[in-house]
Task: inverse folding
């Protein structure tokens, strides 16, 4: 299990951008596919909205990797 904290300087970051920044997806297209296939959990629930606004305290999980927005 890998837990990583991603610090942002803005109010939010879009889910697909968080996946790229955290190294889960190499490209936006790859992030889009993972999200649309229901493979990404946001705060413990499946999320299929790639433009989901992730704010401080939110988590995104894929397989054994969890990214926490700070």
Result:
């Amino acid at each position: 299990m890998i837990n990583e904290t991603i610090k942002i300087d803005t109010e939010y970051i879009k889910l697909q951008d968080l996946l790229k920044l955290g190294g889960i997806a190499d490209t936006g297209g790859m992030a889009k596919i993972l999200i649309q296939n229901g493979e990404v959990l946001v705060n413990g629930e499946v999320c299929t909205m790639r433009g989901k606004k992730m704010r401080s305290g939110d988590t995104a999980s894929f397989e054994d990797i969890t990214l926490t927005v700070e």
The two ends are 19 Å apart (CA to CA).
